Structures are given as C-alpha cells and as structure tokens.
Amino acid sequence: MIFSPLNGHIVVKRLGSEKVTRGGIILPDNAQKESQIGKVRAVYSEYVDHEGHLRAPLVKAGDTILFPKYEGEEIVLDGEKLVVMKDTCVRGLIHEYDAPASDGNGEPYERKTQRLTQEAYAEASA
Q1: 111 and 72, same structural domain?
Q2: What is the DSSP string of 70-100?
Q3: Who contacts 109 (Cβ-Cβ below 8 Å, separation ≥6)?
Q4: Angstrom distance (rounded) from CA 11 to CA 60
Q5: DSSP helix/strand/coil, 85
Q6: Model confidence over 11-61: pLDDT tens digits?
Q7: Which of 1, 4, 18, 43 has the most CB atoms in a 10 Å sphere around its CB?
Q8: Would you state the pLDDT for residue 70?
Q9: Are strands 64-66 and 47-48 parallel, antiparallel or unpaired?
Q10: CB contact at 8 A, 15 and 37
Q11: 8 neighbors 44 (Cβ within 8 angstroms)
C-alpha cells in the first residue's frame, strides 16, 4: 500500500527504543519508552499554506529526525507502525559522521567548543 501525505504532513518510522538500561536491566515491552527518533519515509510535495505562500518540504525522505514524544497520529500500513505528523513539529535533523577526536593541537573538539562558547558568552556579557 502506498500512502502519500498532503498539506505539510510527513510519514515517520520510529527507530528502535531502548530494550536495556544503562545498568544492564532488560526492559519488558510494556515498560519501554517510545523512541523520539525516527526516519522519514514520505513527505508531501509543495502546498499553499494558510497565508497563501507556497511551501516546500522542510525534510526529505530518508532523513533521521527528532520529534516530540506524543506528536502525530500513529497508523499501521502493511503491518508497519508509522507516525503521520506536520513537518513543522520536527525538532531537528540528526546527522551521523565520524569526527576526529582532536583539532590536531591536542585539544579535544568538545573542550575547544565549550571554551569558545564560554569566551563568546563572556564577550557578549561585557
């Protein structure tokens, strides 16, 4: 079955939820939390919003996204659980990449980013 979302809606497949806690406890199905991360399966084509502007999709099929826990409407198509929601409800895109551990000068990127952010905050506060 093919489902084509309309008027700013997207179809998302939730990615797997945690089955084991950090402490190693295996959670039963009824205790597992719904994942807030999903893969976009289908998007709408352009549409005219309520203000009369032509809107293009904010995400594309295949994107990995973060969305609110109780957002959208759950449907089942061909035995697969999917969520239909507005694309404006997407909180962000999740990108996977392999970053080097340091900047080449020995300072880890994480610490360097934190230091630069603190310096920018100090300058803005002054």
Answers
A1: no
A2: T-SEEEEETTEEEEEEEGGG--EE-------
A3: 99, 100, 101, 102, 103
A4: 10
A5: strand
A6: 999 887 666 666 777 766 665 667 788 999 999 988 888 888 898 888 999
A7: 43
A8: 85
A9: unpaired
A10: yes
A11: yes
Read off the pLDDT of residues 65-122 as tens digits, 9 standing for 90 and up.
Answer: 999 988 899 999 999 999 999 988 999 998 876 555 555 565 555 555 555 556 666 6
For residue 112 the two structure tokens come to 């360097």
Clarify whether residues 90 and 101 are in a common domain: no
Structure tokens given for 90: 């997407």
Amino acid at 34: E
Shared domain for 24 and 76, answered yes or no, is: yes
List CB contacts of 105: < 8 A, sequence separation 6 or more: none
Q: Which token pair is 100?
A: 């080097």
- What residue type is assigned to position 89 of the chain? C
